[in-house]
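Memo subject: From amino acid sequence to discrete backbone structure tokens
Keywords: amino acid chain, backbone geometry, structure tokens, three-dimensional fold.
Body of memo: The sequence and its backbone structure tokens, given next.
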Amino acid sequence: MMITPELKMIETPGGAISYRESGSGPVLLLMHGIGGNSRSWRNQLATLSDHFHVIAWDAPAYGKSVERVASLEEYTVAVIEFLDALSITNVNLLGHSMGGVVAQGVAGFHPARVTKLILSSTFMGHGAAEGSPLGQGYLARLEDIKNMSPSEFGRARASSMVAPSASNETCKEVASIAAEVTYSGLLAGCKMLHHADTRGLIANFKMQVLVLTGEHDSVVVPARSEEMAGLIYEAKTEQLLGVGHAGYLEDPKKFNLALENFLSA
């Protein structure tokens, strides 16, 4: 079993952010989804660190990162403050699901900071008006996290995140990571995604973009990612066969190969 790098902390103007890192070379920043955290990227931290300085952050109110205002703009500021605190000028940026929406914000508002962009199992946000109630899917998840034990919640999230063919070991790992999600982190993430709308940002991307989808993803169905890709100039798209929403853990070899091919091209 590969060892996950230790959790580190760094202070930023908006508060502390926790992260893990491995390797040296060009920076590859990994941003997890709403059911994940920096531990989601164990395989990428181990394998891609041969060629990259791989950094996996914890989003606001995940891991030991402080909570922030639940908006795309504020989450984008958090990423920029994080990079500044680490004295990193630009990155190859990978955002998965919730992290992919934030990554679109970073690339849209701060294009000079992003060398190449990878958007994994993600979409453009829901674009709901301020003050409008959260969607039923988010409300159901928030009810679950209030009423279930952490392990029960983790298993419930894992069952929707992986393909039917996923190994028992993979299901357990996805569940153990999701079990660490807090109510405050989940609520903030839901609010951010509910109001975020990246449609006006992505049409102006000039960097190279890879859009990854999972064949059996039922959380962000591939058609939603493909709609997003259609608005990005010359975006490359690749579907990972046999995986659901957690391709980085379900088939890390295939996931990592897609990243390496894109980043080295």
